[in-house]
Design goal:
This is Major facilitator superfamily (MFS) profile domain-containing protein. The chain crosses the membrane at residues 28-50, 62-83. The structure is a single chain. The chain is an all-alpha fold and 157 residues long. 80% of the residues lie in helices and 0% in strands. The protein has six helices and no strands. The chain has helices at 2-21, 26-51, 56-77, 83-98, 101-110, 117-147. It is globular, with a radius of gyration of 17 Å. The two termini are 22 Å apart.
C-alpha cells in the first residue's frame, strides 16, 4: 500500500489541500513535504533497523509499526480544520510511511537465497508500481467523484 498511498497523495493531496484548506501553493507544499520526508524517512528507517538488530522479524516489526502509526498520522492530518494542525501531522505521517522502505528492502533481500536477490528486488519494484502508484490516482479519483467528498463533508473526523 506504500506506493498506492504515495501515488494518491502525489495527485490528490494538492487538490485536497486547495479544496479543504484553500492553499494557494498546495503543489509546492506537498512536494516539499514529500521530498524532505522521503529523504529523512528512508534514512531513519534504515538507521532504526540497524539499531534494533537487522533481522527479518525486526524488519516486520518496524514495517508494521511505521505503517500503523503513519496511517494514523496521515488520516489524522485531514481531520484538522486548520492548516497549522494539518501540516505537522501529515509530515510525521509521511515520514513514517517512508520509513517502511528499509524494512521492505531488507525483507526482499534476505528472504531469498543470494543468487535470487536481484530477481526479488525486480519483482518487488514491478509489483509496487503495478499495484501501487499506477492505479492509485484513478481509483482514488473514482471514489472521490462517486462519494463527492469535500471539506464540508468530512464527517469521519
Amino acid at each position: 500500500f506504500y506506493n498506492f498511498v504515495i501515488g494518491a497523495y502525489s495527485y490528490w493531496g494538492p487538490k485536497a489541500g486547495q479544496d479543504i484548506y484553500h492553499m494557494a501553493s498546495a503543489d509546492l507544499m506537498f512536494g516539499g513535504i514529500t521530498i524532505v520526508c522521503g529523504i529523512f524517512g528512508t534514512l531513519a528507517g534504515g538507521f532504526i533497523l540497524d539499531k534494533i538488530d537487522s533481522t527479518i522479524s525486526n524488519a516486520f516489526k518496524l514495517l508494521s509499526g511505521a505503517t500503523f502509526l503513519g496511517a494514523i498520522f496521515c488520516f489524522g492530518a485531514f481531520c484538522f480544520k486548520s492548516l497549522y494542525g494539518f501540516i505537522p501531522f501529515f509530515s510525521v505521517g509521511e515520514l513514517l510511511v517512508f520509513a517502511t522502505q528499509a524494512p521492505v528492502n531488507y525483507i526482499c533481500l534476505h528472504s531469498v537465497k543470494p543468487s535470487l536477490r536481484p530477481l526479488s528486488m525486480a519483482m518487488s519494484t514491478v509489483s509496487i508500481h503495478i499495484l501501487g502508484d499506477v492505479p492509485s490516482s484513478p481509483i482514488v479519483g473514482f471514489i472521490q467523484r462517486t462519494k463527492s467528498i469535500t471539506g464540508e463533508q468530512r464527517r469521519f473526523c
